[in-house]
């Protein structure tokens, strides 16, 4: 793990995030920083100077106190509210900011639900940051990280080097022993590509459904769509993106479990489908196709349809023609 990249690329939920010690209780403690990564794993960060004597032992008990109470008493609604408040302080909208950060195979609502699940399962990350990590703390961190599963414990030493008017900060991550890596590697995400996607789809759903997905992929390629491959640990996906005048438009996603998602949730962020009537029109056109019956309540979500409906080639033809209509609507907006 490159902790520098991790912290800079993970959304900061809150500084001085208050932690309750009982259900519905007021905040008893405050962790220095709370981050969330793309896998919805809450990361508690405590920062101490090497001159602070608490860096040797007291900070460990302090962090374990935070973690033990967070997984029991920290409501997801509170974490979400902290993130939204942090975004507003920066003058940005929370949902678009989160959507931009997330990988292709998860939407904001799923992300918050996953955060809740991770908290309840104790799947959190504890990070100690200091300009100098004492040997005693490093040994404790390595021991805890090897013993704790699914929780993760790390220390980051950030040394400062100055010379000729140049200042460099060099981070060093501690706690990632071979044994700890082995224990925690089973749930890592993977980067899918064309070869792995279609191989997995054929294995899970058979050659026929893989052929339908291939036709959709070829349709997107002939229109010079940008293809984004997912990073799911179990299921592969590809998202079709139509870039027009510098704006990316998500249309559909295809999954190796045999579903095609209509990306209403992403479409509603860009013209013309930010207009509800336009999304309803697209919904109407889709529902005219045999085998498709999407509820009107789904025009702000990501409803899916099975690849099996494309056994009738005319159904696939009408489906792709409907997507072509959506493209023309985008161009005309």
Automatic annotation (TrEMBL):
Which GO terms label this protein's molecular function in UniProt? nucleic acid binding
Judging by the UniProt lineage, the source's domain of life is Archaea
| Alphabetical list of InterPro entries matching this protein | tRNA_endonuc-like_dom_sf
Q: Matching Gene3D superfamilies, A to Z?
A: 3.40.1350.10
**What protein is this chain from?**
DUF91 domain-containing protein
UniProt organism field: Candidatus Methanoperedens nitratireducens
């Amino acid at each position: 793990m490159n902790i520098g990249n991790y912290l800079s690329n993970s959304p900061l939920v809150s500084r001085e995030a208050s932690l309750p010690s009982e259900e519905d209780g007021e905040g008893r403690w405050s962790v220095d920083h709370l981050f969330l990564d793309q896998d919805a794993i809450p990361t508690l960060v405590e920062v101490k100077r090497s001159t602070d004597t608490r860096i040797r032992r007291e900070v460990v008990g302090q962090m374990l106190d935070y973690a033990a109470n967070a997984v029991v008493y920290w409501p997801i609604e509170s974490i979400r509210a902290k993130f939204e408040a942090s975004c507003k302080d920066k003058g940005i909208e929370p949902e678009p900011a989160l959507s931009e950060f997330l990988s292709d195979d998860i939407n904001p609502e799923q992300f918050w639900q996953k955060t809740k699940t991770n908290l309840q399962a104790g799947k959190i990350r504890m990070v100690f940051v200091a300009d100098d990590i004492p040997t005693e703390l490093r040994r404790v961190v390595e021991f805890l990280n090897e013993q704790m599963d699914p929780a993760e414990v790390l220390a980051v030493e950030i040394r400062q080097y100055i010379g000729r008017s140049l200042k460099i900060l060099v981070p060093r991550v501690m706690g990632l022993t071979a044994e700890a890596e082995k224990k925690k590697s089973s749930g890592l995400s993977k980067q899918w590509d064309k070869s792995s996607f279609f191989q997995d789809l054929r294995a899970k759903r058979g050659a026929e459904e893989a052929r339908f997905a291939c036709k959709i992929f070829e349709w997107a390629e002939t229109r010079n769509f940008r293809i984004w491959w997912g990073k799911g640990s179990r299921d592969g996906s590809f998202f079709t993106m139509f870039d027009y005048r510098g704006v990316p438009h998500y249309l559909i996603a295809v999954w190796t479990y045999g579903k095609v998602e209509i990306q209403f949730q992403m479409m509603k962020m860009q013209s013309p489908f930010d207009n509800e009537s336009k999304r309803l029109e697209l919904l109407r056109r889709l529902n005219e196709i045999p085998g498709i019956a999407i509820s009107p309540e789904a025009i702000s979500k990501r409803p899916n349809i099975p690849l099996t409906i494309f056994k009738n080639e005319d159904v696939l033809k009408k489906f792709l023609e409907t997507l072509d209509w959506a493209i023309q609507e985008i161009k005309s907006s």
